[in-house]
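User: Can you help me understand a structure? I only have the sequence.
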Amino acid sequence: MALGGKKICGKWVFGFLVIAVITSSRATADIISCGDAIAALIPCEAFLLGSSLPTPSSDCCSGARNLESMANTVEKRRALCQCFEQTSPSFGVKPDRVNSLPLYCKLKITLPAEPHYDCSKIP
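Assistant: Let's start by predicting it. Here is the structure, written out as tokens:
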């Protein structure tokens, strides 16, 4: 019972964080909003937090590919990097899972997994 309560509580916290990021983000034509980026990866929650099977779901990969298509300029990829750099630690995302997402989902984009990644190096 206690374990189930922790899972439910974790999902509520994750949901509130997503809502907070979405409502505090401002979208422009030149930048991907952090809220849009996180929303695209909501199907990846269990995979990125390490609470599911060792491979991402097809829905997760679909969301990741959608995010990759939105990040079609250097500026957008760097904004995406900054978003993940700032939010990943607070969500409890596992860096090894982030690093493996491009391989499993056949992405060409680099997703930073470390909190102090130099986003200016994103091509």
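Now, to help you interpret it: The chain has one domain: 34-121. The chain is about 65% helix and 0% strand. Let me know which part you'd like to focus on.
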